[in-house]
Design a protein that fits this description.
Blueprint (H helix, E strand, L loop, with lengths): L4 H13 L5 H20 L16 H28 L16 H35 L4 H25 L3 H7 L7 H9 L4 H9 L2 H21 L11 H11 L2 H9 L2 H24 L14
Helix pairs in contact: 1-12, 2-3, 2-12, 3-4, 3-12, 4-5, 6-7, 9-11
Length: 301
Amino acid sequence: MEIDRIELKRQAKERMDLTQPRFWVVALAFLAMTTGVSWLVSLIPLPSAGPGPIPVFDLNLFFQLLLMLYTTVVRFGLCLWALWTYRQLDPDVNALTQGFSVAGRVIIMELGIYLRVLGWYFLVSMFLSMPVMILLLTDSGAGLGLFSLLIFFAGLLATIIILRLRFALAPYLLADRPDDGPTLPIRRSAALMRGWKWDLFKLEFSFIGWDLINLALSSGVTAFFLHRAGLLTPDIFLDEALFVQAMNVIYSAPVVILSTLVTVPISLWLLPYRSTARAGFYDARMLAVPTGTNMPQMPPL
């Protein structure tokens, strides 16, 4: 049985429109809790690890790690909001903070997913690199060598996508059954996604138009500042000095802030829309689980 992607997205939009407060308020709160907090932390002057035989504790690295863990928990809160929205359980903005009650399990689950993805990535990269190295060492020609490198990188990209899809439903499984711990949702997600990765990929890929609009808006702001600085020339990749200046402009505070703010209008729609549609996919998979199996059933609403 195939999941009707169009109907699922239609239901996601309908149920988003019923939320109080409005979905864009929740998306704005999410952006403030993640991107906004990241900006505030970046404004704090922190000493870095100093030179010398005895390393100094790097406060900047510590705060970046802390911020990453904090953002992980807030993203889980967005999953909760999306799941409750799709099930028409009237969530509010406080759903974004509900993940902190199970923050340890969320972080351990995400760490487990990361280690699994990293492990499989290295195994696949080692497997794919062997024929590439053989072709390069045997001097099989520049064309064949370039083609093998393209196949190698395409294989690595496909591996990352497949592995991320394999564990994509783990946050929703943890949200439904937090008492099961951080490991079971990972294994259950792998079981639920067996044979369904292509369907979820098509759902995720259907949002690429919105992502491209955001990319165009952000790139437009960056190109404007590069043009004002006289750095938007074809020589930027040939002249090392020009390239360094361009990087300084791109990563300057005004460019980073404005290139992010210009994408906010689209993100206020895209973030809840994509999350709610993914929650709908999860519910569709849970409803298809046959009774009598070792997989959890859909919880009562």
